Amino acid sequence: MLDEETFLYFTDRALDGMTAILAALGDELANTRPDLPGANSPYAIVTHCLGVMAAWAGHVAAGRTVDRDREAEFTSSGPVAPLLDRVAQAKDQLRRDLAAADFAAPPRGDVPARYAGTPIGQRQGAALAHVLEELAQHHGQLELTRDILLARTRS
Q: Cβ atoms within 10 A of the Cβ of 44, count?
């Protein structure tokens, strides 16, 4: 079973990796989209991850009211330093949300319809596992995005 300590170990690894990439890229490259269909900038990928954390850990598991504009996450841009601060704040909030969660209990907040009949929509612990899934997936995406952007600057 997934426990709080293990969950935070893996989420911290993903988020720390993401912040290191953002810091290394700097403002210009962090806001650049690779020349690939449907690609997102590193800034947008990390902003989306913060939305995932708020929605699934904050709203679904902990029952907090969360105001999320998912579509705007993918068009977001800005300087890296404030985004790094937002990641640090989100990590703190995730710890509070996790402390309020009951892994075996049903969700406290509304679950999107497409997840209602899945394990993700049935238990707070599964909703939290979805956060972990998304962070790991997007950390890998961010690593590839970084590599593409840096290769482009070297040619």
A: 20
3 state SS for 7-67: HHHHHHHHHHHHHHHHHHHHHHHHCCCCCCCCCCCHHHHHHHHHHHHHHHHHHHHCCCCCC
What are the phi and psi torsion angles at 46 (to 5°)? -70, -40
Report residue 83 as tokens.
Answer: 């985004």
pLDDT digits (tens, 9 = 90+) for 2-13: 789 999 999 999
Nearest to 153 by CA among 34, 71, 7, 1: 34
**Torsion sign over Cα 155, 42, 38, 32:** negative
In the 8-state DSSP scheme, what is residue 74? T
pTM beyond 0.90: the answer is yes
Question: How many Cα neighbours within 13 Å face the side chain of 31?
Answer: 11
- CA distance linking residue 137 with residue 105, whole number of Å: 25
Report how far Cα 29 is from the mean position of its chain's Cα atoms: 19
Nearest 10 degrees: CA dihedral of 79, 85, 87, 88? 160
Token pair for residue 10?
Answer: 């893996």
